[in-house]
Amino acid sequence: MNDEARIADMALRLLGRAFDELDEQEQRVICAIAERAPTSRNAGEIDDEEASFGDRLADRVAAVGGSWGFIIAFGVVLVAWMLLNSSVLARAGLVFDPYPYIFLNLMLSMLAAIQAPVIMMSQNRQAAKDRLSARLDYEINLRAELEIMRLHEKIDRMRIADLVEKVEDLSERLDRNG
């Protein structure tokens, strides 16, 4: 039996459908079983291989912008800006952004306008990675289920062969004894 016929037979036997009727994941699992190849793949590695520079940059910005270190450092910068423009530079008459800190508000607004879409891009990438991970988990679960079914078939064939042998042995004994 050639490989294509064996794969087609396996698809019919295990999933009850022709190989051509299976979706891509099911076909990949049936082929992996037929080739006795591993099914598992790492979603993170697949995603990293497909990530562009912009994707990696968005992930990095989101990782930094969503950390406590960034929040604390940003808070320190804000307090330093306000102290500098309120008291230190006021004594020398060099205040460049007096209260109500309009320039600071402009900078914060620009940062938020840039950072929010970048964080959303990173979240979209994470959602896509999660979907990929779910598809890979489905393939692994399907493979495990099909392998268990194959083992059941094998054990059933062995038990039937054993029972047939025992019935033949009993039949021979009965024929000899009378």
Structure notes:
Helix 1 crosses helix 2 (24-35), helix 2 (24-35) packs across helix 6 (102-177) and helix 4 crosses helix 6 (102-177). The longest helix has 76 residues, at 102-177. It is rod-shaped, with a radius of gyration of 33 Å. The protein has 178 residues and is mainly alpha-helical. The chain starts with a helix and ends with a helix. The protein folds into two domains: 1-37, no CATH class; 38-177. 4% of the residues are buried. The mean pLDDT is 90. The chain is built from six helices and no strands.
Protein traits:
178 residues; mainly alpha; 6 helices; 83% helix; rod-shaped
Tally of individual helices: 6
N→C terminal distance = 45 Å
**What is the averaged pLDDT score?**
90
Helix content: over 70%
In terms of structural class, how would the helical and strand content be classed? Answer: mainly alpha
Task: Please report the total strand number as a whole number.
Answer: 0
3D shape: rod-shaped
What does the main sheet amount to? none
In the residues, how many domains can be counted?
2
**Gyration radius, to the nearest Å?**
33 Å
The poorly predicted ranges are none
- How do the SSEs run, as a string of H and E? HHHHHH
SS strand fraction: under 5%
